[in-house]
Amino acid sequence: MTMRNRKETLLTLPLDPAAAMPLFRQLYESLRRGILSGTLAPGLRVPASRSLACELGISRNTVLNAYEQLLAEGYLEGKVGSGTYVPRTLPEEMIQVRATAPPARPALRKRRALSRRGELLVQASAPVPRSSGVPRPFRPGVPALDAFPFETWMRLVARYHRRPPRHLLSYDHAAGYAPLRKAIAGHLGPARAVHCDPEQVLVITGSQQGIDLTARILLDPGDKAWIEDPGYRSAVAALRGAGVNLVPVPVDQSGLDVAAGSARCPDARLAYVTPSHQYPLGVTMSLSRRLALLDWAGRANAWVVEDDYDSEFRYAGRPLAALQGLDRDGRVIYLGTFSKVLFPSLRLGYLVVPPDLVDAFVAARAAIDRQTSTLMQAVVADFINEGHFLRHIRRMRTLYSERQETLLRAAQRDLGGALEVCPCATGLHLMGWLGDRRGDQKASQAAAQAGVEAPPLSSYCLERRERGGLLLGYAGSDGRQIRDAVRRLESVLCHA
Predict the structure, then answer these.
(1) DSSP letter string over 66-88?
(2) What domains does the chain contain, in order, with CATH numbers?
(3) Which parts of the chain sit beneath pLDDT 50?
């Protein structure tokens, strides 16, 4: 670049004395941009500070301050007795890898070998669809995010994030933040009739981790486990991923058919159940079935995983007592989650394990995942201890009851015999039974094309069922959205 071109370039530097940014900083930014863009080429000698000050009509100190900053950061370099130059190698080039074409890679005709466990995990997770993004009506498992007390929540979050206590910034006990474990135990006693001390509570990263952790500790590959059919798909994936052989056990109006399970596989090592609100059918396990299940577990030296995922929300009478409260032999591992009560992305759940298993579960958790975010655990502990948790649950019971009633009225009015939607005293979703023999997979796909997310019952089944149905999660949609979604269903189910 000639001396003339260099002067013309520098004379056009945008400087505004009236701007809030100091002049030396404006000059620094302009010179830096010119160097990075190549307008001021590598090896170029820049004017002396006195000369540039005269050319731009600014003070020499302004130029000196800008030059000093650029020299300190490596955008200029001084040569004794020669002047100041744009360097050949810029700071960005010293700390970043230049973008070059990647080396040619050999074409892989097939996936390279995984471990046996890796293959099991891939195969187990493949059929489990993962819903993500903004929920559409009627995606199951979504709480009323529009009614969550975010102002209260953010006040609690700010309490810890503005000036976090040092002990919350370090590693914590693998079992979880002690005040949260105590708060969970204090809530579960009166609310769910769960018998436990805080020492039996482990804070985990959601229900999925609880099932996986239990399978790792209590089951060996090849062991057999009862699974509700239809049942929770992610539990199927977690158990299959651990190498467990699943035994599907039918579910009727009284819950898991224990007699059928005993006939099919009396020597199973574990049973996974959702007794308070069976997923997805919504039925409640009768007392006689609960006692029979515990009796079988004692005789078979087996374990029972009780997934109590949304039983806080019961709309008729008090919430039912948990199966764990009936257990006298320490056979039940109780699993709970905050995903349905608060919000799913929180990724917080908990296990209540028999006293003799606590050390094993804590050791395994430490080896696998160390801990869940202590800051978020502290926020949830305060949310519970200050009474916000129970107030939120009470408000949501009223709101969800109203939303369920809205869905039932709209379905009765618009869906006729195409979809029989049955009421349920618990939970966040209803079953809609198809009125004809059409496949629920096709019905679900048609609903999705109309903007309605209603999973087919058959996707939750290990064995074929005669009658198809759709799951309708109503909690996450307001009345207008529910009525609109029902009309969309009517357009694809009644006029197909």
Answers:
(1) HHHHHHHHTSSEEETTTEEE--S
(2) 3-95 (1.10.10.10), 148-386 (3.40.640.10), 394-493 (3.90.1150.10)
(3) 95, 97-99, 128
